[in-house]
Amino acid sequence: MYIPRMAHSQITEALKFFPVILLTGARQVGKSTLALKLRQFPNYVTLDNLTVYSGAKEDPVSYIEKLPKPVIIDEIQKLPNLIVSIKEYIDKDRKNGQFLLTGSANLLAFKTISDTLAGRMAIIDLWPLSIQEKNKSQKGILDFILQSPDKISQSHVQQKISENQIYECMITGGFPEILKINSFRGRYLWFSSYIRTYIERDVRDIANIRNIDGFIKVFRLFASRSANEFNKSNIASEAQVDQKSLANYIEILKHTYQIYTLQNYSPKFTKRQIKSPKIFFTDTGILCHVLDIENTQILEKHSAKGAIFETFVFSEILKHSSSIDKNIQIYFHRSSDKREIDFILIHDGKMTAIEIKSSKTVSKGDFKHINAIQDKSTREKFNAGYVIYLGEHIVPFSDVTLAIPIQNIL
């Protein structure tokens, strides 16, 4: 059964203003399915087809000119240079909504290609399914979090999802196909096949990696560090790869939507890129698979439970932030005296600080770092500070600080 995606309305809006739409995201995230649901595009070709690929590669200019339009071109990352011919075609007679490109690698990785369609192409990221999409809900996590704290403290929201369902959501993740599988063995086989296919297809499509074993080691090491800052020297040493290769692997994992690096928030913008970022897997299903967590009983007792829970909350925030009209900037914060806050959201000139706690209780001490940044906040107005946890009740700790159950806001 098809699950409507939040990106649908974004594409429809972008068609009014851009000749080219690039729908990009990880393999098997649902790009082709979504594209084929768009009635504005009656024509479809895929570069997975060897005949289509050969024809487009042999004479790209003629191929683009003869294509019936509007048209979907699937798997564009297989032939990124085709975009040059698309640009030439558009510049002859610019009409909005002519091309919808889908790809499992972000074409911004190819600087010359992304520059080619500057001002002509809207880029829309498609992430794994959010809880909002799964539940077909009108509101997502940010609709709740970005409210004023007084509205949240006065709300009496019924819990939408149980604690056990939260664990189950972490283990299954958000890939549409995995939701159709209801056995542990079936999930294991799907995730194993996904990772193998990803390595064999996407990685080889965009990079000539000679040391595949080294790449896989880095991939697995990042899984053990999701929701944590990472030291490149330590990772390179453990994986037995050089620093240049490691930097290349990180970019590949980012551009194929397997990981996301979150920058440190600092009062001075120039310092944000200097400090070590935190790394997150973009899907907790893949993460749990790599960590050999196959059921809720293992997850509840696992040493990485807190990191997986934080990764899960981050992924929900990331998915929702990419689909709403507001400009939401997401950071973490670690000060020189090692005061750390899991997430800093900057929105409408205001700051919301969020701590994640994978327990059923919250104490005043859990807000100490939030209180510290509240006292020092100058550039952005401090909006609120929340501890998101696995308990049952919304508990105010001050006018602007609250403990909020994750079950209430998904």
Give a written overview of the molecule.
The protein has two domains: 7-125, P-loop containing nucleotide triphosphate hydrolases (Rossmann fold, 3-Layer(aba) Sandwich); 132-409, no CATH class. It is 42% helix and 17% strand. The chain is built from 19 helices and 14 strands. It has a six-stranded mixed sheet with strand order 9-10-11-12-14-13, with helices on both faces. Helix 4 (60-66) crosses helix 5 (82-92) and helix 12 (212-223) packs across helix 13 (232-239). The protein is globular and about 65 Å long. The two termini are 22 Å apart.
Task: List descriptors.
410 residues, alpha/beta, Rossmann fold, six-stranded mixed sheet, five-stranded parallel sheet
Structural class: alpha/beta
Strand content: 15-25%
Structural domain tally: 2
Strand order across the biggest sheet?
9-10-11-12-14-13
Task: Name the shape in a single word.
Answer: globular
Residues in helix, %:
40-55%
N-to-C span: 22 Å
Calculate Rg over CA atoms.
22 Å
Number of strands: 14
User: Low-confidence stretches at least 5 residues in length (pLDDT < 50)?
Assistant: 269-273
| Main sheet properties | 6 strands, mixed
Tally of individual helices: 19
Kindly state the mean pLDDT as a whole number?
A: 89
